[in-house]
Amino acid sequence: MAIGIKDIFSQHFGGEPVVCAFAPGRVNLIGEHTDYNGGYALPCALNLGITGAARLRDDKTLRLYSANFPDGGITEISLSSPLAGGWTDYPVSVIRTFAAMGYSIDRGADIAFSGNLPDGSGLSSSAALEVLTGLLLRELYGFSVTAQELAVFGQLAENRFIGVNCGIMDQFASAMGKSGCAILLDSATLGYSDAPFSEKDAALVIVNSGVKHSLASSAYNDRRRECETALADICKVKKISSLCALSVDEFERYKDSITNPVCRKRARHAVYENDRTKQAAEALRNGDLTTFGSLMRESHMSLKDDYEVSCAELDFLAETAWSFDGIYGARMTGGGFGGCTVNLIKKDRLAAFTGVVKEKYKEEFGIDAQIFAVEISGGACVINE
Could you say which DSSP state residue 58 is in? Predict the structure, then answer.
């Protein structure tokens, strides 16, 4: 049996924690790279994530431990220390964000973490860690902070301190997830609605490619700049707040105003993906998994050809899934250049799907793919563990 977070805390810090909490990872069913373009995404929180336990100290020292990096031991950091460049930058950045937003943090803390999200899988372990840290801070210090604010603070931490210009979707799904439902999130307004997902006949399956190419973080920022360039060009002929404020018809009308062909491709993906996401949410609400699956496939092809964030491993996994008897849909998910595919398959075909994908992927790349069926869970919460 896995050791609980209370026991992990006691082993390394002695005594009992004051609060324990959980924050889930997320998978995005469709709506990739739309959140920072003012569009819709359709993520859901997972029953995989990160647990944390914390206790206040009487000095200004942070002591952080992660069971996922046990060789690193306990890291001691002053509240005023600069970022060090490792995993501890994420919780420290959230603490800095709280302070920047006017929440007084004048005492340190002992915090232990333990997660079951595959590292580098694209299931948003960083967002889960950020939201979890925010929740622990809220409970430790008695701050009056909503779940939605936890998401915003997590995004700000990543933007301002980590240096990744991510949108809000990952943190929002982790903080605001609802069991049995995907979330149709309007990143422009943070308005959202539920899209119920019936798990009676369909299984949601994650396939981890086991690769994460080194250009992922820098390319993410490149894509954002390319979209900003496209937006600036379109605004010369039509004033809009974001690329995803354009309908598909409007994009086709104004696309030639984007002078750089690469930036035009990036914008095309954003606009069409936004439209696909709205259609997909409606299909999910109607129980139309065939249409939903077709939209997933279109999304992958757009990410491959227009946004150019896929890779050989992800393409192979998606194509293998598409040829499988019993699949509704499959696509890469997350930022790209490695990580995972998300697959929607008939429940009675789960074992066969696992066997086929494992065998073919191993034969092609020599890599053992991790495959796991997941459940859609609620968002970050305090736990008794």
Answer: S
